[in-house]
Amino acid sequence: MKVLLRARLFDEALRLFEEGSEKYGIELDDISYNTVVKMLCDMGELHVAYQAMKKMEEAGLPPDVITYTTLMAAFYKYGCREVGDGLWNLMRLRGCNPTLTSYNVRIQFLINRRRGWQANDLVRKMYAMGIKPDEITYNLIIKGFFMMGEHEMAKTVFGAMHGRGCKPNSKVYQTMVHYLCEKRDFDLAFRLCKDSMEKNWFPSVDTINQLLKGLIAISKDRNAREIMKLVTGRKPSYSDDEMKVFKDILSHGKTGR
Q: Would you indicate the residue range of the signal peptide (predicted)?
């Protein structure tokens, strides 16, 4: 079944699932059901996926945290908030303790709803449950606070990562640099961008453009040149057109004053 799913042959996989038990004498287990639930969610067939979970129960196999998390993520993705919330509550009511992935799905939903403080409270609950947040968790929380205009809180969360044994990855750096540029905090954006680039983690071209323009605007030409030096040494290199834009920003800064 997994081979069919990897080939995205969903109809064939579903047929095997429906006919397999009787036609081939295959005993369906929790892995089989969870595989089908994931497939149906990927197809956007959320109602059928939910029914597959009900059939799982009827077969004497209690849905597990993987079942609930898969369905919850899909319903949230398609904007079915009430069902997603219901699955989150049902999962815990049935004695399925949320995993790191479950919490990240729930936090993603809260962030999308601009409920960053509630998402941050969930992180505290994760620690209380003995679940260590990962880079995805922190990136979501940081992004959520920036989106709410709580820039200082976003920076506090970023600063707390090291103390909690979680080093920022490239996505966290990208989030920080992007939103700091939006906030016009170019000094901190420069320091983090430089640190990121020295690890060979480069933000998007648009973010680099914004940072270079911002540094030039606040007369931090030297810092802009440092970023440009790192940009020039990137492997794989930027395209000729992208490099031309970067250089034009620096040259305009020199002639504009």
A: none
Judge whether 207 lies within some domain.
yes
Q: What is the 3-state secondary structure (H, E, C) of 57-99?
A: HHCCCCCCHHHHHHHHHHHHHCCCHHHHHHHHHHHHHCCCCCC
pLDDT at 18: 63
Average pLDDT over residues 189-216: 97
Q: How confident is the model over 135-150, as a mean pLDDT?
A: 97
Nearest by Cα to 48 from 82, 75, 8, 69: 75
Within-domain flag for 146: no
Q: Is residue 90 part of a domain?
A: no
CA distances from 157 to 79, 175, 194 (A): 28, 12, 20
How many Å apart are CA 128 and CA 155, to the nearest integer?
A: 23
**Structurally, how many domains does the chain consist of?**
1
Confidence of residue 253 (pLDDT cuts 50, 70, 90): low
Neighbours of 32 (CB within 10 A): 20
The confidence score (pLDDT) of residue 162 equals 83
Q: Domain limits at 244?
A: 171-257
